[in-house]
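Help needed: design a sequence for this.
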């Protein structure tokens, strides 16, 4: 008897942002393959009998390759188990869901996708940034800062031409390079941007700056996202001169909100 695989989004970090359906599926799981950044309170929802596999990566170091993950899902479901592939954020956004779906289809394993709150939405909520605005931002673009090839395959001039808010997932720490490419593509140096670290968690931090000063941004704890666009100016966080001496004021912790 063949089981079933659920590709489940765990949300951006706050366990209360887990959907009701995701929580129900987790409570009835026989096996769970989870990413590194899934919050511990979410893993506590799992039944005691469930087999748990940490298949994530941290600081670029993989515990297990993608082909091994695919094979493990197929094997577990093929033995009749209800399997949950638990991913941070939403499984369909930079979560390698496409590769896993292809593997499941090829093996004729039934599967279902349970969407989650993607990191960009959690980061925007933490920083109080409207990702779209009827007067200044009619489009929203999600970009991966790191590609499978290791090369920057983003068509920055095309994105700039859209006039969209740009959210960079996994931006890394080479902000000088990002700033240089965007300014070369036509964006002005005074354009607002923000780095959000550990969005929706008690350790969340927001570093607000402008594109020309982005190169001076400090290294904040992962995971981080970079938001670029006029809407960033809607955030209540002040824009201060980018000087590490001002870091205590310019990096605003989640706990310090009034």
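Sure. Designed sequence:
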């Amino acid at each position: 008897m063949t089981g079933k695989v659920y590709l489940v989004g765990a949300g951006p970090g706050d366990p209360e942002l887990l959907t009701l359906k995701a929580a129900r599926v987790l409570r009835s799981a026989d096996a769970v393959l989870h990413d590194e950044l899934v919050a511990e309170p979410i893993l506590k929802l799992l039944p005691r009998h469930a087999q748990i596999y940490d298949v994530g990566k941290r600081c670029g170091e993989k515990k297990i390759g993608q082909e091994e993950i695919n094979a493990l899902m197929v094997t577990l479901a093929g033995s009749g188990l209800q399997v949950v592939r638990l991913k941070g954020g939403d499984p369909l956004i930079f979560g390698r869901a496409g590769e896993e779906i292809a593997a499941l289809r090829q093996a004729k394993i039934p599967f279902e996708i349970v969407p989650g709150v993607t990191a960009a939405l959690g980061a925007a909520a933490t920083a109080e940034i409207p990702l779209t605005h009827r007067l200044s931002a009619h489009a929203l673009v999600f970009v991966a800062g790191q590609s499978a090839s290791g090369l920057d395959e983003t068509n920055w001039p095309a994105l700039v031409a859209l006039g969209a808010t740009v959210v960079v997932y996994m931006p890394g720490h080479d902000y000088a390079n990002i700033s240089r490419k965007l300014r070369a593509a036509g964006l002005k140096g005074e354009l607002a941007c923000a780095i959000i670290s550990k969005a929706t968690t008690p350790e969340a931090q927001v570093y607000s700056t402008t594109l020309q000063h982005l190169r001076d941004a400090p290294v904040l704890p992962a995971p981080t996202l970079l938001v670029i666009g006029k809407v960033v100016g809607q955030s209540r966080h002040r824009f201060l001169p980018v000087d590490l001496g001002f870091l205590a004021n310019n990096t605003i912790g989640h706990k310090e909100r009034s």
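The two ends are 55 Å apart (CA to CA).
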